[in-house]
Every structure is written in C-alpha cells, then in structure tokens.
Amino acid sequence: MVSKGVPIACEMIMAKEYVAFDPKMTGGYPAARDLYYECGTCGELVPSLPADNAFCSCRNIIVDVEAGRISIKRHSDVRLVRQRSEA
Fold it and tell me: What is the tens place of the pLDDT at every residue in 12-56?
C-alpha cells in the first residue's frame, strides 16, 4: 500500500525492484517518480516525490514536500524500491 495519509487502492500490477543506496555516499536520498521508500516496521511504501506530504503509518518515514526533505527515524528499517507497472 502506498501511504499518503489515506490508503490508496491500486488496480495496476506493479513490478518491485530493490535499489541499493547509502545517503552518506550519495549526499542525500534519491527521488524519482518510480522510487518509493519501504518501511520495514509497518511495511508501507512512501513515494519519494509525492504531490503532498507523505508518511508511513508508524511515522518512520516522513516526506515533507514544503521543506523538500525526507525524515527517517530508523534507517536500518528502510529500503528503496523502484516500482514499474507491468503490461
């Protein structure tokens, strides 16, 4: 489930690919339309480029659109996911 404060139903089948990243090495957190952060605590996906502020239900991952930043409490519980729709 992609979280944006309100659960969103999705009819499309998505292919999930985990992407290795280290914010210390890259100078920050990657962001793109097809990139999501997966919370290992609650299991929810948070878009890296949401239109509005986004967060997972346990608040481990918070994307603050106005400030242009992502906040992660437990980095070891987060994975970067690339999702693409399958034809």
Answer: 556 889 998 888 877 788 999 999 999 999 999 999 999 999 999
Instruction: Quick: pLDDT tens for 48-59.
Output: 999 999 999 999
Rounded to whole angstroms, the Cα distance separating 17 from 57 reads 22
Q: Domain of 68?
A: 14-85
pTM as predicted = 0.78
Question: What is the domain count for the chain?
Answer: 1
Is there a domain that residue 21 lies in? yes
Please check whether residue 31 lies inside any domain of the structure: yes
Label each residue of the chain as H, E or C: CECCCCCCCCCCCEEEEEECCCHHHHCCCCCCCCEEEEECCCCCEEECCCCCCEECCCCCEEEECCCCEEEECCHHHEEEEEEEECC
Asked whether residue 69 is assigned to any structural domain, the reply reads: yes
